[in-house]
Amino acid sequence: MRHLAEPEIVRDRPPSVQSVRLGLPRPWPERRDLEGRFVRLVPLDADRHGPSLYALGHGGNDALRSWEFLPYGPFASEAEHVAWLGARAAQDDPLFFAIVEPDSGRALGVGTLMSIVPHHGTIEIGHLWFSPGLRQTPAATEALVLLLRHAMDELGYRRIEWKCNAANIASRRAASRLGYRFEGIFYNHQVVKGHNRDTAWFSILDEEWPRLRDAYATWLAPDNFGSDGTQRTRLSDLTRPPGRPGPPGSPGQR
Q1: Is 144 exposed, middle or buried, given 0-12, 13-18 or 19+ CB atoms closer than 10 A?
Q2: Who contacts 243 (Cβ-Cβ below 8 Å, separation ≥6)?
């Protein structure tokens, strides 16, 4: 198994019983476009987005491996995939978005807001599927930031979660890079495709959000990227809690 490049930031604050002054319930997430510079998130439309998602998710070994940790896929045919997407697009929780190119509208991946509990102000980002060409790009990061901003800024949720197979090192690295705090592992949590799944839990809390929001804006700014698209400052260096040293420099991201 691959290992994490740097230790996860563990949530270790004392338990809290403070009063909650946030107005509850929070609004339900909106089924609307979320606009970014690199990508746009739009409500999933199976007929419009399905053919591209099927092609990008089934065209070679890298594409087929992209389904490894998800409880569905790969699909036997485009028709089967489009039908599956149609059923998901009709749901309110998870609320599915297609990640599309701003100009062409071509779908490159999907993401959701899910486990939505307005009365507690908690929500989760999940069901993430990124095509091989979308992974590890500024567009992929921006897609996640758009979901985070919608939930935390526009809707005012107080906790946003990230859960993944504990063996999915890429997903755990992504959560840590975004500034999520690790909260532990639920062992023997699920059975997925006939295999045990231990689930790693992460979260961002409302008191952590303003600093992370600023970090995302700094990282996504045009002046953080060279003419070849390489980042000048790593996002993990911006999201790491103050006073915590980082590892030695690592290669830039496209």
Answers
A1: buried
A2: none
- Number of structural domains found in the chain: 1
Structural domain includes residue 254: no
Angstrom distances, CA of residue 204 to CA of 65, 183, 231:
29, 10, 24
Sign of CA dihedral 55, 59, 65, 66: negative
- The CA distance from 2 to 170, in Å, is 9
Instruction: Kindly calculate the radius of gyration of the chain based on its CA atoms and give it in whole angstroms.
Output: 18
Residue 145 token pair: 């930031």
Query: How many Å from the N-terminal Cα to the C-terminal Cα in the chain?
Result: 25
Give the predicted TM-score (pTM) of the model: 0.93
Chain segment 64-110, per-residue pLDDT in tens: 999 999 999 999 999 999 999 999 999 999 999 999 999 999 999 99
Residue written as token pair 């590890």? 136
Which range marks the domain in which residue 152 is found? 34-239
Phi, psi of 145 (to 5 degrees): -65, -40
pLDDT digit string, tens, across residues 208-247: 999 999 999 999 999 999 999 999 999 999 999 987 766 6
Specify the CATH number for the domain of residue 132.
3.40.630.30
Whole-angstrom distance, CA of residue 232 vs CA of residue 252: 7
With beta carbons less than 8 A apart as the criterion, state whether 109 and 129 touch. yes
